[in-house]
């Protein structure tokens, strides 16, 4: 069919009177279409065009070539050329020759619009009659494709970035932000860019690229690709457009992470555009990098690591998409010894490819992949490499790899720097050694011992309690989930599944380590489920595995948790005392047991078992760290059932572990035992000096323990039956802290009630508090204050008969002079009361 043609003449520059106009319009083009088409045909001349250009200058001016989609679905293809003003006058204008393609009608011979760029049928003047359709091109390759290889090579630094942007611009919905701007000195070079796009992009995408090879108004263009000259590049950049300055210095990087675009650029630079058609025959998304990268590698084109990764990943997902010949070529390209820039992602993709091809291809095809993977695992330290199976090497390939890598594996496993080797590295080396048949039997005990030590430490932070900050447990700590398995867990479990001797040795080593830090081992087992359900006893590992579940089930009952954990060992603490240490460490890892719990632990096993397990130290901590739950008669928290139990526990510990307990811990327990004897028994003489000496030896002694000992001493000294020698020693020791404790105890309600109701006790206190007026500096003011503030109110509350009894008792136990002193002291009190009464009456009168 014949397509409608149009001719349009623009206004001359500076001519305010004239306007652009259509000089000829073919049939079927409505006025509405012309109004839409006209803005697409207007072009501004570059700056600095001479008023009367020479023929050469005229030919050098831009010749815009435009392809646009119209509102009705039709398309417009047009070429404009600069011409002199009609009539020979000064000035230059554009003449546009355009073709309208109705909706649904393909271009002649199903050509692409850009192929008509160099058609010989474009004219630069309005013809007097019909002219040939410029879209009807001669058979064969279009002129636009000529020289594209050379052009692509010359634009190598910009290729990937431009192709990436053209791909984005070719989508169903145009990319936001305005058109892609190509800056070239010649419109022909912009057309060549579009020719590259038409050969590279799938047909449907290339046809969506509307364009013009020249404009001075890129910011207002509705087309997807526009060309501008260098002098207009800054305006395009200021408008926020994607600008590619292809006429300037090359960019530092290109492609912006678009692997497909980078691969396409390498294909063009290799002058192999026919590979785009080959790649489109392979399955995959239109712009998937894998098919194009596979095609390029099979053709011998050198690619980068990202492109090789894409090729290996695509082939791994579609192991049946390539025939045997292309599969072999791909493997050869991926394993080429000339490649020295492989990345971890590439090795991961190659590992997936090996897994997909293994068993589907001949071993001779996959052996180079296996060799590359194990070499990287040993030399590159890539812990994520998926290792092949033992039968991956057949014949001389495996022997050659083992001969090359075996000494390196043995040297690293037995090297001095192995102490800092990560778990994943050790696991990987052991797996590769077995894969290659390297004998590690001599090194295995040492390697496994180091591996067992590293596993708990590398899994979680040291010192984190099993139940502390991660969940509700016996300590009441509420916390977060312990987290998933560590990265090395899958490889470790595969190692244990593959190598029975390593599994046996490693589980035994972990079981031996568990008593020293059972909490860390328990946290490790929470995140890595080791296979220790076989015939090995492994009592400590079984307890560590049981602990989290026991804590969740028993809540805050630590004693119940301990019994359940201990049962899971399958051994009695009498037969294996170390299970005591493991169980105690699991339940009371970051805290001391309570006194009741310590008593339960002490009774659960003999002192010999606790001595062998080292758990006696936890019991000492429980006794020394106990705080009283009930106030004492003196009103302080230093006595009561908890204090009694702690003192009884201290007594038993001193008796059960006489050689083990020493230093400040022994002094602290002796303080507790002395406090018990002061309250309930007959301690050896020299109480005050004993308390002071033990406090000094127990430094730094806790406040609760010090107060407990002081309170027990002063309460015994306040008792009516205390020996006078002990009281004398106490008063003359001049210990301010002890005297203060005595003062507090004497002011409690228990003592005050006894003073009010027991005349003999009041007489005794009067005698004591007046007997040593010059005993140092601490005692006299306290004694005087107790007389005035404690004893005087008690005597005032007595009857006359009770006061007389106090006076008589003072005389019997002391002397007549002391009885007179009491009368004088009491009379001054009475006179003081009488005087205050008389004064009050006078004031009222």
From TrEMBL:
User: Locate the GTPase-associated protein 1-like C-terminal domain: which residues?
Assistant: 268-821
- Pfam families, alphabetically? GAP1-C (PF20052), GAP1-M (PF20014), GAP1-N2 (PF20013)
Map out region (Disordered) in residue numbers: 1-23, 460-488
Q: Which residues form a coiled coil?
A: none
User: Source organism's superkingdom?
Assistant: Bacteria
- Every GTPase-associated protein 1 N-terminal domain range: 3-134
Tell me the ranges covered by the GTPase-associated protein 1 middle domain, including all copies.
149-239
Please identify the protein, giving its name as recorded: Uncharacterized protein
Natural source organism: Streptomyces violaceoruber
